[in-house]
Write a structure and sequence with these properties.
single chain; mainly alpha; Arc Repressor Mutant, subunit A; two-stranded antiparallel sheet; DNA-binding; MethylDNA_cys_MeTrfase_DNA-bd; catalytic activity
Amino acid sequence: MKKTENFFEKTYEVARLIPFGKVTSYGAIATYLGTARSARMVGWAMNKAHDLEDVPAHRVVNRKGILTGKHHFDGTNLMQQLLENEGVVVVENQIQNFDKIFWNPMDEL
DNA sequence: GGATTGACGCTCC
DNA sequence: TGGAGCGCCAATC
């Protein structure tokens, strides 16, 4: 738990640092954390992060820009609503212009 | 303690 | 070019 605590902490930290109207991918965070091959851990961390209200998990999507985790939110399209609220265009659970609004933690951090 | 799952990603066919 | 399968690390059952 101690060792993973850092992993969680970093994951949450990065998630919180995501600028308004920007999004990132699990893989990007995983890479930043040094666990690039374990993007699943980031997703899993987000699951726990969902328990925390401070982590904008809705800004984190998979490498394709698809809102794979939206099903885990309260509403069916709550995640999409949140993103659209930030100016992010989401169609069919997929973020449009993903390349443009993609926020790379390594580039900023 | 062992097996399965998971909000992913990459490689192989 | 498209689809399917395997691998990762940690947690839960």
